[in-house]
């Protein structure tokens, strides 16, 4: 939570509440410590496994924090208690925002750790996919380049995928975020939102949307991992022959 504490100090704001998407440590680990530092802190979520949980929310429940309005959207699959948060301000020119945790990513979707393809299909088509197209998508991880490399494998002729991948690679090189995207953009290049497209169906060998999604997720799970870059110091030592005494000739 130390980065968050620094942001709170820098922005001169008071932490009143935490909206937690799911119980995994990389999304909820700091809750307990923050609750100790801020007595009375409210922690919202849909899973009893979330640390320091004080308010259990349900699908469609609306919360208000000052001018910010929040609608809780239950999206079980990655975990059985996953909740997304749709936020907006009335009469604001800013686009609404979706904090999608590990359900919807830029160019991808979350793994089905505790759920089914049927659940994820409902999440993506009926719950998240029907939000306003201008909604900004703030997902829980930066895995855009890898997601889009897979999307290009699925649809090698998709120009939107090619353009977004080139853009994301440049962002990565510059060490700046690729998040957020918009929901409208996601429908152009995210294969998990394009299960009715002929090219995506051809790639999976399926036509029924849930089966297409299931096959896509299986392919994505087995998508080759990027090669690890060798440690530059180790390579330099190797070039200088410093490992010589430790290497045996065959």
From TrEMBL:
<feature type="domain" description="Metallo-beta-lactamase">
    <location>
        <begin position="2"/>
        <end position="141"/>
    </location>
</feature>
<protein>
    <submittedName>
        <fullName>HAGHL protein</fullName>
    </submittedName>
</protein>
<dbReference type="InterPro" id="IPR032282">
    <property type="entry name" value="HAGH_C"/>
</dbReference>
<dbReference type="GO" id="GO:0004416">
    <property type="term" value="F:hydroxyacylglutathione hydrolase activity"/>
</dbReference>
<dbReference type="InterPro" id="IPR035680">
    <property type="entry name" value="Clx_II_MBL"/>
</dbReference>
<dbReference type="GO" id="GO:0046872">
    <property type="term" value="F:metal ion binding"/>
</dbReference>
<dbReference type="InterPro" id="IPR017782">
    <property type="entry name" value="Hydroxyacylglutathione_Hdrlase"/>
</dbReference>
<dbReference type="Pfam" id="PF16123">
    <property type="entry name" value="HAGH_C"/>
</dbReference>
<dbReference type="GO" id="GO:0019243">
    <property type="term" value="P:methylglyoxal catabolic process to D-lactate via S-lactoyl-glutathione"/>
</dbReference>
<dbReference type="Pfam" id="PF00753">
    <property type="entry name" value="Lactamase_B"/>
</dbReference>
<keyword id="KW-0862">Zinc</keyword>
<comment type="similarity">
    <text>Belongs to the metallo-beta-lactamase superfamily. Glyoxalase II family.</text>
</comment>
<keyword id="KW-0479">Metal-binding</keyword>
<dbReference type="InterPro" id="IPR036866">
    <property type="entry name" value="RibonucZ/Hydroxyglut_hydro"/>
</dbReference>
<keyword id="KW-0378">Hydrolase</keyword>
<dbReference type="InterPro" id="IPR001279">
    <property type="entry name" value="Metallo-B-lactamas"/>
</dbReference>
């Amino acid at each position: 939570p130390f980065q968050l504490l620094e942001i709170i100090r820098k922005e001169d704001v008071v932490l009143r509440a935490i909206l937690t998407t799911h119980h995994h440590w990389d999304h909820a680990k700091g809750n307990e410590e923050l609750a100790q530092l801020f007595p009375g802190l409210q922690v919202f979520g849909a899973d009893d496994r979330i640390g320091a949980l004080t308010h259990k929310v349900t699908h469609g429940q609306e919360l208000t924090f000052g001018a910010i309005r929040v609608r809780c959207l239950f999206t079980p699959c990655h975990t059985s208690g996953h909740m997304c948060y749709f936020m907006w301000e009335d009469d604001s020119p800013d686009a609404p925002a979706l904090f999608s945790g590990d359900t919807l990513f830029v160019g991808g979707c979350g793994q089905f750790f505790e759920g089914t393809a049927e659940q994820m299909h409902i999440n993506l088509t009926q719950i998240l996919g029907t939000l306003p197209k201008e909604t900004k998508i703030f997902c829980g991880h930066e895995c855009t380049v890898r997601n889009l490399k897979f999307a290009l494998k699925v649809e090698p002729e998709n120009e939107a995928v090619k353009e977004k991948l080139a853009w994301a690679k440049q962002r990565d090189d510059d060490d700046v975020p690729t998040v957020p995207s918009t929901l409208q953009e996601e429908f152009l290049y995210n294969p998990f939102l394009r299960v009715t497209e002929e090219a995506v169906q051809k790639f999976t060998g399926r036509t029924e949307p849930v089966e297409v999604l299931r096959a896509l997720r299986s392919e994505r799970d087995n998508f080759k991992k990027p090669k690890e870059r060798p440690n530059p110091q180790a390579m330099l030592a190797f070039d200088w022959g410093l490992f010589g005494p430790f290497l045996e000739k065959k």
